Amino acid sequence: MNGKTSNPKAWLFVLPVVALVAFNALIPLMTVVNYSVQETFGDNVFFWEGVKWFEQVLHSDRFHASLGRQMTFTAIILAIEVPLGIAIALAMPRRGVWVSVCLVLMALPLLIPWNVVGAMWNIFALPDIGLLGRMINGLGIDYNFTQQPIAAWFTTILMDVWHWTSLVVLLCYAGLRSIPDAYYQAAKIDGASGWAVFRHIQLPKMKRVLTIAILLRFMDSFMIYTEPFVLTGGGPGNTTTFLSIDLVKIALGQFDLGPAAAMSLIYFLIVLLLCWVFYTLMMRGEQQ
Questions:
Q1: Residue 1 falls within a domain, yes or no?
Q2: How many domains does the structure of the chain reveal?
Q3: Is residue 8 part of a domain?
Q4: Cα 146 to chain center, whole Å?
Q5: Is residue 19 classed exposed, middle or buried when 0-12, 13-18 and 19+ CB atoms within 10 A define those classes?
Q6: What is the model's pTM?
Q7: Residue 191 resides in a domain
């Protein structure tokens, strides 16, 4: 006997959540699946098309270009925010009144709605009236994110780093605070350097929270829509038209519901597959 008891009635408290998830996720998903294999011209009249839309999307240069931009953006975001978040978490105080101050400052960007973030940075980066735009142009650098592709990418990445690095910081800081002082005392007795402490104590102990941070930032950055749409509208041209923005253009702008539904399912499977790959690689050897 392990002393544990089970209460089958506890599942009754879970059933409302299961029903809510089924209503909010499964029913819309099945609707998208229905549209992805059919064609409609209105009046709720459908014509069977099979896998035609999936083939069209997978062979589309437009989809490949959007996917390439999306994966490039996500890779850059992860390469910047994860190391930067770890560094800031390591630099934050462990005791004293400054702990609360730092935690509040780190949490502030996460409290701002996504559309407000895009609007803020749109005004902030305007070359004529924006503080960032005027400062960069004042340094002799020609900067205009509304017309220059490189400037648009730079501004979008800078905006996302400002908005979401705090999430990585807070998760890493929580992981660092959970490490017992005995580990640090033993390392001090052994004369371990700061790098040795980070490599052999802090980084391994942060592995689980880092896995969560990377998965969350990957999913958020791969599905980003509101911030770049408000900031650049996907421009100039299609420079910052990521998968999510392109999907909305196809579904609502062109009203091509069949291709849009097929693209959304492919989009979902890509996110699911890459999350599984990330999780498998991060947790490799965890059971050993």
A1: no
A2: 1
A3: no
A4: 24
A5: exposed
A6: 0.86
A7: yes
